[in-house]
Known about the structure:
CATH architecture of the domain at 391-582: 3-Layer(aba) Sandwich
CATH superfamily of the domain at 391-582: P-loop containing nucleotide triphosphate hydrolases
CATH topology of the domain at 391-582: Rossmann fold
CATH class of the domain at 391-582: Alpha Beta
Helix content: 25-40%
Structural class: alpha/beta
Amino acid sequence: MHSSIRKLQKFLQLESERGYDNRAVVGGLDKILPAWLKEALEDQLEQRLIDYVAEKLQDYAEQDIQGRRETIRDLLSELKEPGIQQAPLKPQQTDEAPPAQPAPPAESPQPKEKDITPPEAAPPPPAHQPDPAPVHKPSAVPDSERVALNAPLTTLDGIGKRYADKFNKMGLNSLIDLLYYFPRRYDDYSQLKPINRLEYGDELTVLATVQSSSARKINNGRMTITEVVVSDGTGFLRLTWFNQPWVANKMKTGLQLVLSGKIDMYLGRLVMNNPEWEPIEKEHLHTNRIVPVYPLTAKITQRWLRKTMHQTVTFWAPRVRDFMPDHILQDARLLDLPNTIAQIHFPDSFEQLKAARNRLSFDEIFLLQLGVLSQRRSWMNAAARIFEVSDEWLAQRTSKLPFTLTGAQIRTITDLRTDLRSGQPMNRLLQGDVGSGKTIVAALGMAIVADQGAQSTIMAPTSILAEQHYRKITELLTEYIQPGEIRLLIGDTPETEKQEIRQGLQDGSIKIIVGTHALLEDPVQFKDLHFAVIDEQHRFGVAQRANLRAKGRNLHLLVMTATPIPRSLALTVYGDLDLSVMDEMPAGRQPTETRVLYPNEREQAYQLIRSQVEQGHQAFIIYPLVEAENEKQDERQAAVQEYERLQTNVFPQFKLGLMHGRLKPAEKEAVMTAFRNQEFDILVSTSVVEVGVDIPNATSMLIESANRFGLSQLHQFRGRIGRGDVKSYCILIPETPNAVENERLAAMAETNDGFILAERDLEQRGPGQFLGTRQSGFAELQMASLSDIRLIEKARMHAQELFNQDPNLERPEHRELHKMMKRFWPAGAGDVS
Length: 833
């Protein structure tokens, strides 16, 4: 075996053993290339193998762990028997070639350019001309030539089983999958300039002729640099490739090139480093246009994939059946699907790219809304037990509460009463800001159900929150529920008590059970469960919520969240739910004053906390980490380490407590109980206080490294204070005095409205934190932005109109839409709650 092969195998094996962290070689795996290329050439390895190894290792750092794993595995596989002639690494031809696809129509190739004219004399036209305004344009391909596009990828010329397997690992199994594999970004090489007008930093295309080329060794032979000089008649430009000596062999004097890349500067001269290039007489896929850049996987290069995609799109996109009804295409002024697919992959202009993105975004929201409407109809068609109480019954219970209900609480209780007596399952989302009083609403709903002998449950994401709900519900309903009819079930509940609770749920003696994930265990069975409440619902997965619903039959379901849901999400992802909003705070609450301080102003925050504690109040100090785990985290604030510093150097006169997620549940409860009982003046904590902590005496909060949290999460933290009738203060300190971060955090100082902050968070950080795992695939929408309220409302309107006319999509004109719905909503993907 060649020494170059053995050495490369050792590096690859080491990288595998290190978990693909790109540290088998100092600086990254690609740093071995200079020396290895030289040795590989001396060993006379096949040029195609050398090229392939170089390309894959150069892309290695950009791949995720899965991509790196596949790259290493495949490279090791290729290097096992280097002396044997293997199948080509690049699938231009395969011995398992599928039937050849028909050639594209004669008019599709671009006209070839024969000569280069100096741009000053006659500027060459751009590679593509923009189309007219993007509206519906029916494709000219007759129906007889259209296909379902469910054929396997091996249908494509140049893709055998080997490459089809690579695509399969990326989730691409058919032609339609490949057509919907969109670029992750675009390089704009559509601008042309003559060489004498180039400027540093330009990203563009140059048409020029090779004047000379050479390759030489540098750094004692450890690196090869290829230099090519080109000219277009207006000036000369030097091109440079590192560790690609084979480029020099292809750059023959007189070769006319199209070059695209970024203009850099070296020793006072303008240069292009590692530009994309193509002979001028060939069709331009990598230069002289808006160039798509695709996500890659092992053994697939950008240039090969781009070429494959172009062949696929050119022939097959016109043969895609458009599932969108014609009247919607016309009314919504949408590009037809064949043109959309062509423009999203190889756009003629940014206007056409925008039109294609708009169509695909509309499609996603439209299909999403149809699925949500279908789920809602299925839910509403079910029958549920009726629970009804009189106004007098409700007035008697609310009159004995230790506080007056807000208008929002009264409206929400009315919504619940309407749902419970409707005969259809309640399916309601209750969103209310922190401290708005959602628990009392849930408690009264459970009291209505318990009054008629049935069972209810409330499931919370943490033991702390479950215990808090248990205490509050017990206090509120103690006069109306017998001792033992309300119980708490969490992971730390002793086994003997768990057995007692399970028995009580099975025989019906327990009417209300409050708990965590422990409620989902198989031994937990109910005699007559009819009402379920899920708190902080985005913290639970689809399967977990389905498991809870399965413990009853056609349950009345109330999901609650303290994270305000932006209106656009309420219209789409939560469109199957009835919505109740609690936007009022209990009487006597004062808005919390929020300030953003620079790191060097930290002492001001400490002084504020001292002042509040000296007045008999308590304070939180929040950190994002428990303890520093590596050198990079040493400079970040860590709760455990900072607790010791604060207690010793900053607040020696006060008693500090420590709270973090690594404590056992019993330890967390002990800390929170001590803090609630005012045994601690200041609680140093991680984000575990985001939910479930109710300390009315806490009036100040300092959040360190505030830039590392989203606005909605910061709002959740802030909700832990200001729960009494005393003025409260929240101080945010980012890690650095970064103007952009401080501008973002300034929104916290501007408003206490959680809905405004949620909208901003959606725009900045995406929908993930609002969705959790509620709906399979919602967070992975490829094109649609769930903050684009105008598009959402338009798509929702058209979806509602169509659903009202043909809810089952049974009409002949909706046949293709029905197929697309099955593709977009695979069986089991949806979740009603």
